[in-house]
Amino acid sequence: MSMTEPLEYYNLNRKKTNAVKVSWNDKTVIIGGGYPIVIQSMTNTGTTNYIETSLQIKELFLSGAELVRITVNSSEAAKSVINIRNQLDKIGIYVPLVGDFHYNGHKLLSDFPDCAKALSKYRINPGNVGSGHYKDDNFSKIIDIACKYDKPVRIGVNWGSIDKDLLSLNVDENNKLKGNQLDYKLVMLDTLIESALNSAKQAERLGLDSNKIVISCKVSQVRELIYVYNSLSKSCNYPLHLGLTEAGVGDKGIVSSTSALSILLNQGIGDTIRVSITPEGNNPRSREVLIAKEILQSLGIRFYSPSVISCPGCGRTNSNFFQKLASDIDIFLKEHMPIWKDLYPGVERMNVAVMGCIVNGPGESKNADIGISLPGDGELPVAPVFIEGNRVTTLKGDSISSEFKVIVTNYVATRYGRFSP
């Protein structure tokens, strides 16, 4: 199987949706339309603290976030948006910013036009724009402003803040189906979908072009998310924003997000993703961006850095040395990528194998672009190095790590250099 097959397979099966452009300055991100999956994140700093928020946006952008969402929930936050945008522009961080509005978005966007202009996209939740006759009025005001300033909108529905009027109506209708009622959860999931699609159509009737609309319907459980997005994908051509609304803490959050997003992406569903995990310990906010990148790269959809293939270790391996070398090489590759990505186009697709013993070591090393097979317990203290399937040298002694790094560096320059044969 060639290195490009997973990506070709994905593109072949991916549903082509509308293309939504999100821009600031000379930076344009396109969601949908067959363009690469967009990674986004959201700050967890207080928006009124524009210095702290700007620094976190910079961190998220440099780690790979192509859109960053910020909370706009008060007059002070709306005023701070302009300061954040100006601060980022001064340091050349032109990442488009998405304003996250709930309850009072219509008022804030109306009262602070500079905020409305500084944002590149608005996110609104139909369940949180108001109730009764105010709901349609408030929604209309936001859409009118989006049209006025030519801004795209994400209609983001969450099951924790579902449109209560629509849910009540659908529950009542379901109760009339004597003996054929649907499970309550299914009614709720179908209501989420209906709410998002109804709101998108309403936005179009109000004048917002269909290529200005992105949809999300977020839930917290993997199977429910897969159900919702399969239904959405069949029902519309709007680009879809994927993500669990509350994935959880630590390993649970990572596994849940990976499971849900991977299944949908591999089905060709989804145009932009966010991994939403609860911050843990001293882990930076950018961790969720790194996880999103790993998901896309593991599926062969996008590539960001050379992949290190390494075995889990067992009783055969000299575990301390093997684990340290695998970690060292992974860090070495990531540290060099800021330079390599410009000098050596395509290096992000490179596979490097660091294997721990003779069982699978030589075979995996031969199948990688470049690999090393370390001696396991009881084996000769030598480590053969393979390049593109051929054994090129054998390393031994205390300098295996430094010598292998030199070999990797030379291989990168030879294979991916601009003037390479």
TrEMBL record:
EC number: 1.17.7.3
Bound cofactor: record note: Binds 1 [4Fe-4S] cluster.
Stretches assigned to the IspG C-terminal domain: 308-408
A biological process from GO: terpenoid biosynthetic process
GO molecular function: 4 iron, 4 sulfur cluster binding; 4-hydroxy-3-methylbut-2-en-1-yl diphosphate synthase activity (ferredoxin); 4-hydroxy-3-methylbut-2-enyl-diphosphate synthase activity (flavodoxin); iron ion binding
InterPro entries, sorted: Dihydropteroate_synth-like_sf, IspG_bac, IspG_bac-typ, IspG_C, IspG_TIM, NO2/SO3_Rdtase_4Fe4S_sf
Protein name: 4-hydroxy-3-methylbut-2-en-1-yl diphosphate synthase (flavodoxin)
Organism: Candidatus Kinetoplastidibacterium galati TCC219
Gene name of this polypeptide: ispG
